[in-house]
Amino acid sequence: VKIEARRGCATGVVQGVGFRPHVAGLARALGLGGWVANRGAVVEIFVEGPGVRLDEFATRLVSERPAAAHIHSLRWREAEPEGAERFAIEASVVRAEGGGGELGVGPDLRVCPRCLAECRDPDDRRHAWALNGCTACGPRFTIAAAAPWDRARSSMASFEVCPICAGEYEDPEDRRWHAEAIACPRCGPRLRLEDLDGRRPCEPEAAIATAVAMLRRGQVVALKGVGGFALLVDARQQAAVERLRARKHRPAKPLALMVADLAAAEAIAELDPREREALDSAAGPIVLVRRRPSPGVAIAEAVAPGQPRLGLMLATTPAHALLLAGLGGPLVATSGNVHGRPIAIELDDARDQLRGVADAVLVHDRAILRRCDDSVVQVVEGRARVLRLGRGLAPARLALPEPFAGLPPMLGLGASLQAAPMLALAGRAIAWPHVGDLDEPRTRAAMAGAIEDLSALQGHRVSRLAVDAHPDDPSASWATRQPGAFVDRIHHHHAHVAAVLAEHGRAAALGVAWDGVGYGIDGGIWGGEFLEVDARGARRVASLRPFPLPGGDAAARDGLRVLAGLLAAAGLDVPMLPDTEFAELARFVELARRPRLSPPSSSVGRLFDAFAALLGLCRRSRYQAEAARALEHAAAEHGPAPAYPFALVDGLLDWRPMLAEVLAPEARARPALVAARVHATLIAMIVAVAAARRAPRVALAGGCFANRILFTGASAALRERGVEVLAAAAVPPGDGGLALGQLWVAGHRLLTRARSGVPCV
Ligand SMILES: [Zn+2]
Ligand SMILES: [Zn+2]
Predict the structure, then answer these.
(1) What's the whole-number mean pLDDT along residues 315-321?
(2) Ligand 1 centre from 111 Cα, in Å?
(3) Spatial CB neighbours of 138, under 8 Å, sequence gap ≥ 6
(4) CA gap 85, 270 in Å, rounded
(5) DSSP type of residue 254
(6) Please, what's the b/e burial string for 44-64 (b: 16 or more CB within 10 A of its CB; e: otherwise)?
(7) What distance, in Å, lies between the first and last C-alpha atoms of the chain?
(8) Partners of 44 in beta bridges
(9) Is omega for the bond preceding 66 within 30 degrees of 0, making it cis?
(10) Which ligand ends up closest to the CA of 67?
(11) For the segment 471-483, what is each residue's pLDDT rounded down to a tens digit?
(12) Most buried residue, 9, 135, 444, 624, by CB count within 10 Å?
């Protein structure tokens, strides 16, 4: 038999996922010789043996790959046999040039069933160990310092491996063979319980049991999780949840729940197969699911007051699982921060932020190197769609158009709300976790840190920056202060549509860019736009008919002001609302008539606010999109309803006929019906513009499409008419996904310049 040899190079998420043990195990099973090693961000393979076996090896390498591995490319070339008889895992090699510039390690992985079984087994040496993990699970992204993935370049480096763990690491038969983060209760990090001053009420062995007892008493326990500290309380105790809300100054925004397993999730929520899949995935995000009318476990009303949906996730780490098992019921699990500050990842910051919020802290000595809040997804039209990109999903990697592979690296910075940076590198966009709203100095500092971290992957500073065109955008002003930076300003709604095109690999579409607010191409306050977008640019072809926002920014926080703007623009009478509101509304209508104090806007988000206020559902949003959600929930309660009349004249969608009908007192007596009809009208507006433009393809973009009724309704109506519909899934539809569109637009601009002979720096 002729012995042949091949060299292979695999890129993608191929480190920290048990890929090398898989490669070596397969080679050994086939009797092949050679080696595998992490080199920079890639995995290199040398294999030799009979040609037919090498073919089988190459096929099964891919088909039997570990669940968390994502191979972007695997290239083979012929090589000279070296007479290797055994197959080995060789030492990792750091590449000076950055190894292709990517972090080869993937997202953090939720604890696996085998590790949980060890935690439950009193005879196992990892029994009850809160930081258990293996080659198939555990933190990666949040503990990796640099490529390649190796213990020495992770926050496990400070823990010396004990002889038993060393034996497991060396043993090809062991499931922790070459598990870089291998450890045990003897040699690894351990959980301990502390009060906020660092005093320890119990031995580490009793940390979980003591914390469970505190939770039972309704106390708040902070836990150092994967991407930061979280605050936990017993979700069944109304007083405990109210106490957490009061201490965290979070009166209304729904809190996420954590349960032990799918059975516990089913007791609380009605799950479809895709929702079960998302909950039980290695990512383990928060999934927005429909609450059961009569749940098997009574959830405190204060968890998600008035919400038909709950944010639910399964135990992320063994620590969570042990706490849930001890408590025997669901936990509220919310970010360990106070308003305006990023989630704490260090003990000092946790003590500082959470003093007066948490009663105790469960902590360990394995450092969190990157902040990563929980991901949030919802299943719509059979797909899990990201609403917030974080733990388990970040870093997300998305393919950019092919010619982008030749462009210099570039950073997209998103916008001031839900800021999240992305790096375009070698034809791919690498999406970093959500940072937060940049209205506070500490969040802005966290954003600068995230940008630094992301560009460090590259080995040098990224000098091309794509930012929002808003003159006051904080990341845009940060970008302009960077020495030697090329700053490309991308209009907000153009980027929203481009993000959807980028995700789906399409070149052009009619984009429906609907959100709360964005700086328009004409400098106006946009948010209800129809843009035809392609590689050359964006053209606004239609929009919502503008209306004044009395008091400008103040109107973004008060639906009654927006309603006044609509009334003033329509020349309609002030409706009879409860006494004080009537007087206020009349005053706002006066204000709306003064153009200098009331800038015009075409925002669909604001239109939602106005109707929510008019119907008495929600006047002031205490968290982002509260009013819009209230309108959506009312519409969902009612079910499908006919649209109101509207007009499309000269590219302006006229909402005045709709407002006139809603103002009738008999209409307002049935708010759920009105809410459903308002949704139906907006859907009909989308269909009308698509028909008028004869659009073969429509991209639904912007935060408004987190609204399930608007999304599914528009999508179904367009498809019925033979229109192809694109929408965000891998990145959020709102500003959290904006950086992807910024990179797409800026990249195309660079390519255009390159084609016209301008050199690409
Ligand atoms: Zn595991
Ligand atoms: Zn050990």
Answers:
(1) 98
(2) 5
(3) 108, 109, 111, 115, 181
(4) 55
(5) P
(6) bbbbbbeeebbeebbeebeee
(7) 53
(8) 9, 37
(9) no
(10) 1
(11) 889 989 999 999 9
(12) 135
SS3 322: helix
* Bond prior to 595 in cis (omega within 30° of 0): no
Counting ligands in written order, which one lies closest to the CA of residue 136?
1
Residue keyed to tokens 């070149």 = 507
Per-residue tokens: 370: 């990157």
Query: Band of the pLDDT at 454, cuts 50, 70, 90?
Result: confident
- Give the C-alpha separation, 217 to 72, whole Å: 50
How far, in Å, are 412, 469, 490, 521 from residue 463 at the CA level? 11, 18, 16, 25
Helix/strand/coil percentages in the chain, nearest 5: 35, 25, 40
Rounded to 5 degrees, φ, ψ at 219 are -85, 165
CA 265 remoteness from chain centre: 21
195 C-alpha to center of ligand 2: Å? 28
Cα within 13 Å of Cα(129), Cβ side: 23
Of 34, 51, 52, the closest CA to residue 43 belongs to 34
CA distance 542 to 348: 52
Going by their DSSP bridges, the two strands 331-335 and 257-259 should be labelled as antiparallel
Supply the pLDDT for residue 98: 46
pLDDT digit string (tens) for 598-649? 999 999 999 999 999 999 999 999 998 999 999 999 999 999 999 999 999 9
Mean pLDDT within 143-159:
92
* C-beta separation of 468 from 414 below 8 A: yes
Cα 115 to averaged position of ligand 1 atoms, centre (Å): 4
Other Cβ atoms closer than 10 A to 167: 12
The span from the CA of 154 to the CA of 459, in Å, is 17
CA of 239 to the centre of ligand 1 (A): 36
Residue range 210-231, pLDDT digits in tens: 999 999 999 999 999 999 999 9
What are the C-alpha distances in Å from 623 to residues 145, 254, 627? 34, 9, 9
DSSP 292-311: PSS-SS---GGGSTT-SEEE
SS3 373: coil
Residue 105 pLDDT: 83
Residue 483, C-beta contacts closer than 8 angstroms, at least 6 positions apart:
none
Peptide bond into 395 cis (omega under 30): yes
Q: Other C-beta atoms within 10 Å of 462: how many?
A: 22
Q: Which residues contact 11 (CB under 8 A, 6 or more apart)?
A: 41, 42, 71, 72, 73, 74, 100, 102, 104
Spell out the residues 6+ positions from residue 142 whose beta carbon is closer than 8 angstroms to its own: 108, 226, 227, 368, 369, 370, 372, 391
CA nearest 21: which of 74, 76, 68? 68
CA distance 193 to 201: 7
Looking at all shown ligands, the one closest to residue 113's CA atom is: 1
Short-list 596, 580, 546, 588, CA closest to 564: 588
Identify which of 437, 435, 460 has the alpha carbon closest to the alpha carbon of residue 449: 435
Tokens 């510039």 belong to which residue?
A: 101
User: d(Cα 324, Cα 458) in Å, to the nearest integer?
Assistant: 41
Closest-approaching ligand to the CA atom of 190: 2
Nearest ligand atom owner, CA of 137: 1
The residues pairing with 380 across neighbouring beta strands, listed in sequence order, are: 383
Distance 183 CA to ligand 2 centre (A): 4
CA-based torsion, 477, 480, 482, 488: positive or negative: positive
- State what percent of residues in the chain have pLDDT above 70: 98
Amino acid identity of residue 532, one-letter, is E
Q: How many CA atoms lie within 13 A of 267 on its CB side?
A: 15
Q: Which two tokens stand for residue 232?
A: 């936990």
Burial zone of 759 (CB within 10 Å; 0-12 exposed, 13-18 middle, 19+ buried): exposed
Phi, psi of 396 (to 5 degrees): -90, 145
φ, ψ at 302 (rounded to 5°)? -70, -10
Residue 524 is given by DSSP the state: S
As a whole number of Å, the CA-based R_g of the chain is 27
